[in-house]
Amino acid sequence: MSESTLGDGVTRERERTETGEAAEATDPNRAEPTRPDASEAGSGETDRTDRTERAVLAGQLEVLTEENRRLRAEYARARRTRYRRSALGLAALGTVCALAGTIFPDARTVLFALAGTGLFTGVLTYYLTPERFLAAAIGRDVYAALAGNEQALVSELGLQETSIYVPREEGDPPAWLFVPHRSDYELPAADALNDLFVVTESERSRGVSLRPTGAPLHAEFDRALADDLASDPGRLADQLAEGLVEQFELLDSATTDVDPAGGRVSVAVAESAYGPLERFDHPVASFLGVGLAHGLDVPVTVETTPADGRADSLVTCRWSE
């Protein structure tokens, strides 16, 4: 093959290649090379970021939950330790008094009495140490939800803002909470109060009958009471007020004012553990209403109002023979 022939072939091949490239460049149906979409890339990056943030938040939540559990356990352990240290201190005091009684015969009677008291109290404190501690806020929040539901029920049915604690002859609870439909109400028969919705032939006796929040408190109070439940209004009011402050520690203070002839007991209370007493069937007001109704064996109407001065609220209980 001659050099001219070879050169001509190379030239024609080059022309065909250039012609094909030009046609591809001018072809309207020619597809453009696929390039990544910037929005799709950004969306994928955002999804990855969101997943990462959720994973981080989930990890932080788990860490906080575990830390909260640890702190509660540590708090309960510290409370138990304090109780048991008090028990050991009382036992040690009793032991010292017993030894001193053997050394000082003149004071033996007093020292042995102190020894017995210290040892007995130490044993009780050690073995009666509570195993579980609940913050007052837990009970307060639970009661707030219950009170909100019951208040909504009363409002929806168009009932009166009147709380009447009606005693029972026997059974649990010792008294029902009756909320009448009409202001000129009449108390229904005892059997009718066993139903939630009290629907009688007389419209004046209609309403709702609820189990008071103070009923379980009264049952526990009655079991722990050293003496019988008083039937005298003054003594009974003092017993109930003392139970609220000393036994249940629901109040910091409770001051009673009794008018037996007028059928009235007023209790000025301060620092309620369950919040404002103006809420529906508050445990403090309910306990007073149930206790007075059960002790005096008469229906008791309870009204709670804000108080002036050192007290926060005034609970007024009224009855008629």
- Sheet with the most strands? 8 strands, antiparallel
- Provide the number of structural domains: 2
Radius of gyration: 40 Å
Share in helix: 40-55%
The helix/strand class is alpha+beta
Strand order of the largest sheet: 3-4-2-1-7-8-6-5
Strand content: 5-15%
> Helical element count?
7
Could you tell me the mean pLDDT? 81
CATH class of the largest domain: Alpha Beta
pLDDT below 50 for ≥5 consecutive residues: which ranges? 1-7, 21-28
Indicate the CATH topology of the largest domain.
Muramoyl-pentapeptide Carboxypeptidase, domain 2
Distance N terminus to C terminus? 140 Å
What's the SSE pattern? HHHHEEEEHHEEHEE
- The number of E-state strands comes to 8
The appropriate CATH architecture of the largest domain is 2-Layer Sandwich
The outline comes out as flat
Summarize the model shown.
This protein has 321 residues and is an alpha+beta fold. The protein has helices at 3-26, 38-103, 108-127, 136-156, 214-224, 233-247, 283-296, and strands at residues 163-167, 175-180, 197-198, 207-210, 253-259, 264-270, 300-306, 313-318.
SSE order and pairing:
Layout: H1 3-26, H2 38-103, H3 108-127, H4 136-156, E1 163-167, E2 175-180, E3 197-198, E4 207-210, H5 214-224, H6 233-247, E5 253-259, E6 264-270, H7 283-296, E7 300-306, E8 313-318
Helix pairs in contact: 2-3, 5-7, 6-7
